[in-house]
Design a protein that fits this description.
The complex is a heterodimer. Chain A is 74% helix and 0% strand. By secondary structure, chain A is an all-alpha fold. Chain A folds into two domains: 83 residues, Orthogonal Bundle (Rna Polymerase Sigma Factor, Chain: A), CATH 1.10.1740.10; 81 residues, Arc Repressor Mutant, subunit A. In chain B, helix 8 packs antiparallel against helix 9, helix 8 runs parallel beside helix 10 and helix 9 packs antiparallel against helix 10. By secondary structure, chain B is mainly alpha-helical. Chain B is extended. Chain B has a two-stranded antiparallel ribbon with strand order 1-2. Classes of the chains: A mainly alpha, B mainly alpha. Chains A and B meet through helix 1, helix 2, helix 3, helix 4 and helix 5 of A and helix 1, helix 2, helix 3, helix 4 and helix 5 of B.
Chain lengths: 178, 250
Amino acid sequence: MKLEDIYRDHADFAWRVLRRQGVGPADLSDAIQDVFLTVHRTLASFEGRSSFKTWLYTICASVARDRRQRAHARHETARLDEVGDPIDLRAAADARAEHNLRLMILESALAEMDVTLSDVFILFELEELTGQEISDALSVPLGTVYSRLELARESFRRTVNRIEDGRRAPARRAGDRA
Amino acid sequence: MNDPIRLLDGGGGASARERDVLRAGRAEGPSPHEKRALWTAIAAQSALAIPAASAQTATNAASAGAGAGATSAGGTSLGVKSALVAIALGGGVLATARAWPPASPPPPGIVVASPAAQPAPPAPPSATLPPTETASAPRTAPARPARPQIAHDLAAREPAPSRLAAEGRAVVEAKRALRAGDAASALRLLEAADRAFPDGALEQEREALAIEALDRAGQREAARARAQAFLRAYPTSPHATNVRRFAGER
């Protein structure tokens, strides 16, 4: 396998895994490079005992953990201008707004799950890993993957419906005049 | 045992709104420009790494497993990495690569100051730009030598859908930080969003999130006081159930 092919096929996956594991926008570029340079150096050790995606996931998770710890050690301050992308947003503001609101709902739904559930939900529903791949990546039995997925789906449905219902009938401030 | 059918493939009886939310999550990723720039940097470093790393080093890293390997990759040549990406981006900026430079001049009221055009001293902060933001600007300067600095008062003048998008993005980032166990970052993001979007449409989301972040950061009393205020202001909010957990109501 050539590194370039691996990167082409899996850069988006790595990007999303890193983001969802708390690597901030300011650190993302370095973190992605860490991931693929690690792949480059350790590819020979990949023995196919798990799927390639599973292996890549464990590298991403490890890099994300490392990045978070270092960001914490630097007492890094979050900056709003590293978050938004107002110039790009102007291009199709309505579509971007809708997209970001959906992402926000997704993040709300994930945040309300126990992390053991959201990990399974993300890998199965969003990243399309198989149950067996998730079982390998998270070192839990396949049956546990399925039961967590079931609970995660219920939680996801509850949150999405609650937020969407709330949006359609926005709660009025108690002090607002009619 | 067979895997269940994914929600986006018609499994689980997912509603249209659930599928829309999932599709947004799947569509995330780097822009093509970012992707190319990152590849240029990775390719350059991997080419350097092959002859430099002896067979022994490679074997050690491999046998130590992905975790140790990742750490050592992270510890090397940070400066090289940042510089390479900056070069590959050709003076552009990761986050704004797709639309920079803008096809048309920015509409009036939008303040874009490029540090590349004004190397020193830093542009004076605008009236609405909090001093803490400018003070921290040079921290990671080498990583983003040509990043356009966009004044925060931009947010107040942007058309409404774009402001909503930017505000939504800030909330997403705060949620991610909180989910990653970084309540302090979440709080800072939310405070910045409060300043940028004082009358934002997502005020409830931000406040509910701030309450949770305060609690996680160990500021229980502050969380309790704000939770009680939230419940008084928005008794029927979709977030009320969650906020109640922090209000100390039995």
